[in-house]
Amino acid sequence: MGGSVAPRRSGRLVPVIAFLLAALSVTTVALTATARGTVASPGFYQAVLEEESAYDRLYREVLVDPELSPVTRDLLAHLPVPEALVTSNIKVVLPPDTVRALTDQQIHAVTAYVRGESDELRLTVDMAPVLENLGDLARVYFGDLVANLQGRERPDFDRFTDDLDAALDALAEGRAPTLPTLPLTDDQAEQAADVLLAAAPARERPALRPEVEVALAQGDVWTALAVTVSAVLSDGSRGAAAGLRATLEGGTWDLTDTLRLAGNDLAALERARDYVRLLTLLQTLAAALALAALAVLWHTGPAASGRGLMRLGQALACGGVLTAVVALAVHPVTGGRFLTTPASWPPSVTALLDDLQRNAVDQTVATGLGAALTALAGGALLACVGWVILVRPGLPPAPAAVRAVGAGVVCAALAGVLIVPPVFGPSAPRPCLGSSRLCDLRYDEAAYLTSHNAMATTADRFIGPLQDPDITAQLNTGVRALQLDTYRWESPQEIAARLDSPEFTPEQRRLISGAVDRANPPREGLWLCHSVCRAGAIELVPALEEIGDWLRAHPTEIVTLIIQDDISPEDTEKAFHAAGLDALLHAPPDDPHQPWPTLEEMIDSGRRLVVFAEKADGPAPWYRNFYRYAMETPFTFRTPSEMTCEPNRGGGGKQLFLLNHFITNGGGSRLDAGRVNARDWVLDRALTCEERRGSPVNFIAVDYSTVGDVLGAVNELNARRTEK
After folding, report:
1. Contacts with 246 (C-beta within 8 Å, 6 or more apart), sequence order
2. Three-state DSSP class for 64?
3. Is the pLDDT of residue 499 over 90?
4. Residue 449 parent element (H or E)
5. Does 419 have pLDDT greater than 90?
6. What is the predicted pLDDT for the residue at 391?
7. Domain range spanning residue 397?
8. Do 275 and 413 fall within a single domain?
């Protein structure tokens, strides 16, 4: 009797052990797959950053934090730039696209090392884009400084030349100089030019001299100094960048050594690498054990085939439940954080990192629950099939069919547990207008930061500039629609009428009139100018080529051009063809009331450049009259308080809506831009105009797009539209 009890107990114990081992093995497979699909996957980190709008918050919350001013100073290479200009121009030096690319570099480097795909951890940052932008910011800053100076008393000529020396010294130290004004004779202009040009590189003096002498002969010290300082700063910024490049070993910043020298322990990454390697081995072993345990459970189970399937299903389902319990325990165990930020860190940084960690925990839990659900579903399916077989009247199915069903569902469930986390877990989203959540918006539903008179820049030395960085830099800083003016070089007789525009101050009119032929003679070809090409001009085709190059380098971006066309549509079509833009041009629907495609559809098509004209309408199918499709607000506001939402060109009821959001009072004003470009001001006006006009605002056209936070308002508008 005693000898027969032990075998029976042993026979009952084996299925129990097999059941427990199967459940635990399935749980282990699910959890290891979850870990590999999250913390060891680059897409996981990219998804977390996207979900928390980390790049937008970096500029809106972190880099403007006074406690981080030393960091922003370092980013600007300690250029002598006033504090207010540091925060407003940080996107010029460190554009969002550059930050995203640099971050992605580090994410891929770390995860490749952790997964064992690279033998050495090297975190390096290519600083070439930042170094190039430093020189641009230097020229923008000093050009801005000179363009906004006011004349002072009229000293004698000797005092005048002394003051020029002092002005150069002040500029070199980053201080606003006090400039004299004095009408000079030709001889005096030549002597004053010698004083200024002495500071410029010798090789550049001959080319600079004619413009400097003409400006001085007209008493235009500002232009003369701007021309000279542009050359001086070109060498100076190159010198500063060269010094920084030497510090960074040829323009590459080795973050690995920097972190180690700063006392950061990178051993955690080495341990993580060991853990991931262990996870891989554990995952393989657990999968093999799960299959073996389920096979034992099948062969040692009840004779009835239905009951066998039910026990297999119960084991799988139990593994799924255990996985879910562990996943749900992550929140209470971690408190929603993987790391604790030091108390000494600025609150803006701590808040961002806490939100990122909370999101990372949420994504990890969701991925684990997905794996758990896969195991649970497989187990429920097997249990249901087994139950149907048990209650089915008549003969049971053939044993071979039951075995095939059991083996197939078990293998499918285990494969699903392995595949679901990496395939359906967090992954790098494709952004549209900087966010994957905007891809389903139609073109006419989205808002775009629009640069008014985008070609009239400080960087390109326009008289009376309305933007600071050049067109490419504007695109880098978030501008997605450019208002451009196309011209042929005007004759002297045409200038007088154009100078009546309220966009030119009396001083600017005097400067342009005085330099009509001597400093800026007529030129052939097609140009981007602001009313008068003598006030500044850039060639049309090269500018279009730059836009095309930028679009090709950013394959998920859409750009709109709104052209104030003073040249024929045929010449415009030829210019776009010469710039190689044919494959990028999007043809709007012939019927202005037809729905536009979604941003995702436009990106997939590759036709991501939309071109409108203020006067023309064709003949090219992609070149349509803006006001057939769009309406706008007035654009001649002399003070911020005059801004209204009243209809202007285009009337009402159109699908596209242009919000003219700039002050025109004798030229552009950075002071006014600083006020009306504030995020809340833009957002409040846009929402008010949307309510009054019954249509979403699409294009928010501003002067000095890098001043204020218009992009923050645009992002908020787009975020609200995805919630509807």
Report:
1. none
2. coil
3. no
4. strand 448-451
5. no
6. 73
7. 2-46+265-424
8. yes
> What average pLDDT does range 157-175 have in this prediction?
54
Where on the phi/psi map is residue 62: left (φ > 0), alpha (ψ -120 to 50), or beta? alpha
Q: Are 67 and 321 in contact (CB under 8 A)?
A: no
Whether residues 399 and 457 fall in one domain? no
Question: Can you state the angle between helices 2-37 and 347-391, rounded to 10 degrees?
Answer: 140
pLDDT confidence of residue 162: 60
Bond into 619 cis (ω within 30)? yes
| 573-582, long-range: CB < 8 A, 24+ apart | 573/619, 573/620, 573/623, 575/526, 575/540, 575/541, 575/544, 576/544, 576/611, 576/620, 578/541, 579/541, 579/542, 579/544, 579/545, 579/547, 579/548, 580/545, 580/548, 581/544, 581/547, 581/548, 581/609
Q: Which two tokens stand for residue 369?
A: 């629950």
- Work out how many domains the chain is built from and give that number: 3
- Helices 305-334 and 347-391: crossing angle in degrees, nearest 10, is 170
Provide the 8-state DSSP code for 94: S
Answer yes or no: is 522 within a domain: yes
Integer-rounded Cα Rg, in Å, for the chain is: 34
- pLDDT of residue 505 exceeding 60, the answer is yes
DSSP 387-432: HHHHH--SPPPPHHHHHHHHHHHHHHHHHHHHHHHHHHS--PPPPB
Residue 75 lies in a domain: no
Above pLDDT 70, what percent of the chain? 68
User: Mean pLDDT across the stretch 438-462?
Assistant: 91
Residue 125 structure tokens:
């940052």
Query: Which of 524, 552, 526 lies closest to 539 in space, CA to CA?
Result: 526
Q: How far is it, in rounded angstroms, from Cα 278 to Cα 43?
A: 21
Residues whose CB is less than 8 angstroms from the CB of residue 435 and which lie 6 or more positions away in sequence, other chains included: 50, 53, 715, 718, 719
Of 486, 472, 34, 25, which Cα lies nearest the Cα of 285? 25
Supply 529's token pair.
């100018």
Asked if 360 and 322 touch (Cβ cutoff 8 Å), the reply is no
Residue 230 shares a structural domain with residue 310: no
Nearest to 712 by CA among 352, 483, 470, 449: 449
Rounded Cα distance, 724 and 720, in Å = 7
Q: Indicate the Cα dihedral angle 172, 174, 175, 179, nearest 10°.
A: 50
Strand 481-488 with 526-530, pairing = antiparallel
Same domain, residue pair 418 and 456: no
Average pLDDT, integer, range 52-61: 80
Task: Using the 3D structure, point to which of 373, 399, 424 is the last residue of a domain.
Answer: 424
Closest CA to 231 of 202, 201, 211, 203: 201
Within 13 A of 362's CA, how many CA atoms are on the CB side? Answer: 11
